[in-house]
Amino acid sequence: MKSKVVVSNSTQELLQDFPLVRSRDPVEARDILRRYGVDMTTSKPSEFFMRTNLAELPHIGLYFLHSSGATRLLIPKREIALVQLCLEGNAQLSSGQHRVELSQGEACICSPGTSAQLEFGRNSRQLLLRLPQRVLERSIASLLGFKPRQPILFDPVIANDQPRYLGFRDLTTLLASRLDAKFSVWPRNVLLHLEQSCITALLYCSRHNLAHLLDTAVNDDVPRYVRTAEHYVDSRCDEDISVEDMARVAGVSISTLTRAFLKHRGYSPSAYVKRAKLQHAKRLLESGAASTLIGVALRCGFANPSRFAQDYRDAFGESPTETLRRCRPGRDPDAQKH
Fold it and tell me: How far is it, in rounded angstroms, from Cα 296 to Cα 43?
């Protein structure tokens, strides 16, 4: 199935309740876009008309852009990734040595810290997804159970005929088509889950320097003793667990267990223990089973509450205090620390 054939809402104006630009004046449109760090030019001002909408979710931004004339956007170097999905017409991304041509249903991506030039043909409709680098890195750390040392770098070309991409494309366009002015009254937790689904789908459908770690994390060809060690940890998150304990239960040496975790999971056994304990802490906070933040940290084996709070934020994108407030409105976590 060719992706360019099946964007069902390509002629629909997405995000229409969030207007940003409605203008036939290229100077007016350029001045508005400059407020958002983007410059714009057009080759034929007499044919120009631009309609742009912007919906801001808790951590990401969704843009819908319709241009009747040939238009060029200049994106400076910023700590954000920008995904461009062509809903209708043709487009082109130029970034460094890369030049990507897009037709309907296809997408490309610009890495954080790189400048780009986006060019749209006549009567084109584009959906742009803006993702801060810190949000991407937190998402990867949450999926892997550890924070990679190197920043993420994307290949601008996305395999547009792959099932993973088609799922990301359909999920993102569905979200954009369903957002209206009332979305702001949705619980913040709902919005966080919606945007996180899009981020996770993107990380799995795109090519980047950390993709091999994600593929390793979901590899089903994992030795039984690794799963045995994982089950042991998952069932004892309230206890002190060492790598020696994991190796003993699994029936292998520490070095064998460590090599297997690194090969099949992409992280060490000790990183898995931390990941499991952080997940357990999150469940305690969300369920109301925790009485104090310090108590949660100590119960899950974190002797340093400050370090626990930092590890928790790296894993889930919010502090333990924010989780407690989100799940139990009206409660003052600061008053419960001691």
Answer: 60
Contact between residue 174 and residue 195 where contact means Cβ atoms under 8 Å apart: no
CATH number (domain holding residue 316) = 1.10.10.60
pTM of the model: 0.65
* Integer Cα distance of 307 and 61 in angstroms: 30
Provide the domain limits for residue 63. 3-215
| 223's tokens | 């030795």
Residue 276 contacts by C-beta under 8 Å, 6 or more apart in sequence?
Answer: 230, 233, 234, 237
Chain centroid, CA 217 distance in Å: 17
Helix-, strand-, coil-residue percentages of the chain, each rounded to 5:
45, 20, 35
Question: How many structural domains comprise the chain?
Answer: 2
Whichever domain contains 134, its CATH number is: 2.60.120.10
CA distance 216 to 112: 24
State whether 174 and 223 are in the same domain.
Answer: no
Strand locations in the chain, DSSP E?
Answer: 19-23, 39-42, 50-56, 61-67, 71-75, 80-88, 91-95, 98-102, 107-110, 116-120, 124-132
pLDDT tens, residue order, the chain (338 aa): 344 444 545 567 899 999 999 999 999 999 999 998 899 999 889 889 999 999 998 899 999 999 888 899 999 999 999 999 999 999 999 987 788 999 998 999 999 999 999 999 888 999 999 999 999 988 888 777 667 778 898 989 888 878 889 999 999 998 888 887 776 667 777 888 888 999 999 999 998 988 877 776 555 578 889 988 988 998 888 889 999 999 999 999 999 999 998 888 778 999 899 988 998 898 888 777 766 888 899 888 888 989 999 888 888 778 888 888 776 655 554 444 44
Same domain, 190 and 226: no
**Burial (0-12, 13-18, 19+ Cβ within 10 Å), 146:** buried
Residues 240 and 203 in one domain: no
Shared domain check, 226 and 158: no
